[in-house]
Amino acid sequence: MKDNKILLKQQECSMKELVRRKRQVKRFVSIFCLLLILSFCIVGCGGNSGKEEATTKSAEDTVAIHAGEINVYLDEARYYAYIAQGTYETYYLTEGKEIDWNKKTKKGLTMETLVKSTVLDEICRRECIYSYCKEYNIDLSEEEQEQVRIDLDNYYKETDGELLSKIGISKERLKMVFQKQAIAEKIENVMAFANENLPDETYKNWKTENTVTAEAQWESITFNQPIFTMEDLY
Asked: Is 120 in contact with 65 (CB distance < 8 Å)?
């Protein structure tokens, strides 16, 4: 009888631990889904790397990337880079392992370099497509503006505090980022409606005509400090 009670107690503890772990995984999946929504889709591209003297300017006034004649500022660059870092780390954790950012890929690049390259590429693509907003007379409707406000609120409700701190972007600036994303996506849809290959062709032509320079501020963004680790599951 005593043994049965002990066994039942052990089973009860095991069930509680299982429920706790499931809740933790569910939380990570929720964060992962949010990060995927906030992240760009991955395409392929390249750019030229350059160096610039460090600056004491604020992140929203410091240029991190020159995408042709377009300046991308440090706070925006951090947003895209660290959202990507958090997305990958969360995905790996849901698979029961931690990502090694220094691990070499089949392309001979570290995981960090590869992910940052895709982030840089998507920033360039977004800026390229967004530059056509006047030509296509594209703006956001009131419903779309409301969705931006909802996404903004959800970002601050769901995003981990450490991630918010690493990104360090103001609410007004982040709103601008979300609006630009939404407009660029809308332009792509209009282009694709006329010709499904037009968005890719437009970006391909842009790359041949423009030089991309990643400044020292972009190079200083690293994934050395993880946002999410296995310890977060316990």
From this structure: yes
Q: Could you tell me the pLDDT band of residue 61, with boundaries at 50, 70 and 90?
A: confident
pLDDT digits (tens, 9 = 90+) for 150-159: 999 999 988 8
CB of 24 within 8 A of CB of 230? no
Q: How confident is the model at residue 1 (pLDDT cuts 50, 70, 90)?
A: low
Averaged pLDDT for residues 39-68? 59
Place of tokens 């160096």: 51
CB 187 within 8 A of CB 136: yes
Q: What is the pTM assigned to this prediction? A: 0.75
Rounded to whole angstroms, the Cα distance separating 75 from 120 reads 14
Query: Which residue matches tokens 């990502």?
Result: 99
Euclidean distance between CA atoms 234 and 229, whole angstroms: 10
Tokens of 181: 């994303």
Q: Tell me the per-residue pLDDT of 123-134, one tens digit each, with 9 for 90 and over.
A: 999 999 999 999
Q: Rounded to 5 degrees, what angle do the CA atoms 89, 92, 98 make? A: 75
The dihedral formed by the CA atoms of 25, 168, 104 and 215, expressed in degrees to the nearest 10: 160
Element of type H or E holding 73: strand 70-73
Cβ neighbors of 17 (< 8 A, separation 6 or more) are none
Q: Looking at the DSSP assignment, which residues form a beta bridge with residue 48?
A: 213
In contact, 28 and 233? CB cutoff 8 Å: yes
